[in-house]
Amino acid sequence: MIQSLLIANRGEIAVRVARTAREMGLEPIGVYAAADADAYHVAQMDRVVCLGEGPPMETYLSIPRLLEAARQVGVHAVHPGYGFLSENADFARAVIEAGFVWIGPPPEAIDEMGDKVRARRRMREAGVPVVPGSDELAQSEEALANIAKQIGFPVLVKAAAGGGGKGMSRVDRVEELPAALAEGRRVARAAFGSDRVYLERLFERPRHVEFQVFGDRSGNVVHLFERECSVQRRHQKIVEETPCLALDAPLREAMGRAAVQAARAVGYVGAGTVEFLLDEQRRFYFLEMNTRLQVEHPITEETLGLDLVRAQIEVADGAILPEAWLSGKLYPRGHAIELRLYAEDPVAFLPRTGRLLAWEEPSGPGVRVDAGVERGSSIGLDYDALLAKLVVSAADRAAAIARARRGLAEWIVLGVETNAPLLDSVLASEEFASGNYSTDLVSHVSLPEISETPDAVWIAAALELASGGSARGSPASRAPEPWDEASGWRPGT
Amino acid sequence: MRIVCAEKSLDVHLDGETAVLGDRRLTFRARRANGEIVAIEMEGHVIPLRAVREGNTVAIWCRSRTFDARPASALSARPRETGSLVSPMPGRVRRVEVAAGDRVERGQVVVILEAMKMEHAILSPREGVVGTIAFKEGDLVDAGVELVEIE
């Protein structure tokens, strides 16, 4: 029996896992880097272990330090959250070899899916459609150029060991390919330690639709329906919803079946997500499998009324999947939307830093906030800029959109700029309302015109300036506002 | 007092629950909780609002928008543009594209800074000759530090 859980993560996901652990009567045990001692997640645990000094590589990403922490407190199980070491097969192996329960898939499944090129081959063999592209044999410039001509331009150069959109670049003509390959290899080597790249056909207006899958140790694998994840900036999701309007019952069934096949092919156990690309003719292709809990898992939880983290822990403890899941008696109810609040400017998506001078979360009917920060939290650049997720659920899609906008309007954040205006513009756009959108939605969305400063703002400013200062702020800790410098900016590769 | 907010300035005078904004006179009530403003009421309307002062700046949240307000007199305290290239945010120097003594044109890429999975090109604001380069590739830099001198 699992009695205590080491949560090898930080931020909102560490807090979210701790909540379920506590509900299950398990002691949540947290970890933190020395520089991160005042982070919000630290105060949400029953016990915490300091991972010592150093950058993320030497703390949250250090397998020896995390194992040492687990031994030190004598935990039973380790939950990796998402990001950091959650998709690192070596970490999974080390946890298992040290005698702890690993709350995740078998290390072999992580390996199979972690190499994107190998995963493509496995999926083809398993009868799952993949995006037309190159395989692992093609690494020379000449071979890749030939494949690019075969599949047709534009193509996408991607890192074999990659993920999260890093190292991806678009190539429109064969002459551009050598430079794109060189740049892709450079970024891939720096980010993932391997410079192998592959090509995929680039679809101009695709949707990203993913399926939640779940397996147990008895070999059962089921899917828990889809999540529409097409609203992205810089290849990263900012708004997700379920159900996906583009799927009718037969397509949903076909994609769900393919997702289960994909998971089965690698002997999957626990929670995973199979990502598909859906083209304008509504043909679907396997993109990749995320062998961990997904950031946007809560929308599945809300429409199905279940707790995926609880299921992860139970399955890791040897339980078979619930009867209702196995017999297909699981029906999504209503509609759910997740909004990711990032510390970044809403136009160029550049990260923002500072201290949260005010932080008041939305609440009320159908509103769930999974946050990793609180008032006073410092936002730096060492970690992901995700501050919190607003998850709303309602009887239908229109009500969910209205609820999400209401929630955003209630959210009070001061001190660090966020992408909230962009999120609201997405929700307010006709394109999003129509449900007929693809991954280029954000590029069509315009932020509202800046209107006059309200009278109330002038009055509040005068009140505060006359009063000699508020007790909340401490002088000189405010981050500089360097963004209006004369330097030019270009999005990264 | 003259206040600057969102690139505009306005004379604001308060007398009890009367506010004079430029040439307009309004009555208002500040609703507070634990001493902090939570709303301003005007003409029967309740406007939720938060205001936090730090030094000479007041950060204000109002109807999903945020504002920074400061006394007009505080403006002169803003740093003037110098002959240097200043890092606009904390990050890691990915590439230095120039060497000391190089002649650079306005808009030429001088440094590539990496922060949060993005590469940012820092461009020269003017024509000139590269002086001291304070950082090398791989160095971590804070926001607001001088990266390269352009003479």
Using the alpha-carbon principal axes, give the shape of chain B: elongated
Which regions of chain B contain 5 or more consecutive residues with pLDDT less than 50?
A: 75-83
CATH topology assignment of the largest domain in chain A? D-amino Acid Aminotransferase, Chain A, domain 1
Counted beta strands of chain A: 20
Q: Helical segment tally of chain B?
A: 0
Describe the biggest sheet of chain A? 8 strands, antiparallel
Q: Domain count of chain B, please report it.
A: 2
Key features?
heterodimer, A: 493 residues, alpha+beta, Rossmann fold, Dna Ligase, domain 1, D-amino Acid Aminotransferase, Chain A, domain 1, 3 domains, 8-stranded antiparallel beta sheet, 5-stranded parallel beta sheet, 16 helices, globular, disordered C terminus, B: 151 residues, mainly beta, OB fold (Dihydrolipoamide Acetyltransferase, E2P), 2 domains, 9-stranded antiparallel beta sheet, 4-stranded antiparallel beta sheet
Describe the structure.
The complex is a heterodimer of chains A (493) and B (151). Chain A has 3 domains: 4-103, Rossmann fold, CATH 3.40.50.20; 132-201, 2-Layer Sandwich (Dna Ligase, domain 1), CATH 3.30.1490.20; 207-444, ATP-grasp fold, B domain (D-amino Acid Aminotransferase, Chain A, domain 1), CATH 3.30.470. In chain A, 33% of the residues lie in helices and 22% in strands. Chain A contains 16 helices and 20 strands. Chain A has helices at 11-23, 63-73, 89-97, 107-114, 116-125, 141-151, 177-192, 249-265, 297-304, 308-316, 323-326, 397-410, 420-428, 430-434, 441-444, 455-467, and strands spanning 4-7, 27-32, 47-50, 77-79, 101-102, 155-159, 169-171, 197-201, 207-215, 221-233, 236-242, 270-278, 284-290, 335-342, 354-355, 358-360, 367-371, 378-379, 386-394, 412-414. Chain A has an 8-stranded antiparallel beta sheet, with helices on both faces. In chain A, helix 3 packs antiparallel against helix 4 and helix 12 packs antiparallel against helix 13 (420-428). The longest helix of chain A has 17 residues, at 249-265. Chain A is globular, with a radius of gyration of 23 Å. The model of chain A is unreliable at 470-493 (pLDDT under 50). Chain B is an all-beta fold and 151 residues long. Chain B folds into 2 domains: 2-77, no CATH class; 84-150, OB fold (Dihydrolipoamide Acetyltransferase, E2P) (Beta Barrel), CATH 2.40.50.100. Chain B contains no helices and 17 strands. A 9-stranded antiparallel beta sheet of chain B has the order 4-3-2-1-9-8-7-6-5, with no helix packed on it. Chain B starts with a strand and ends with a strand. The model of chain B is unreliable at 75-83 (pLDDT under 50). At the A-B interface, strand 20, helix 13 and helix 16 of A face strand 2, strand 6, strand 7, strand 8 and strand 9 of B.
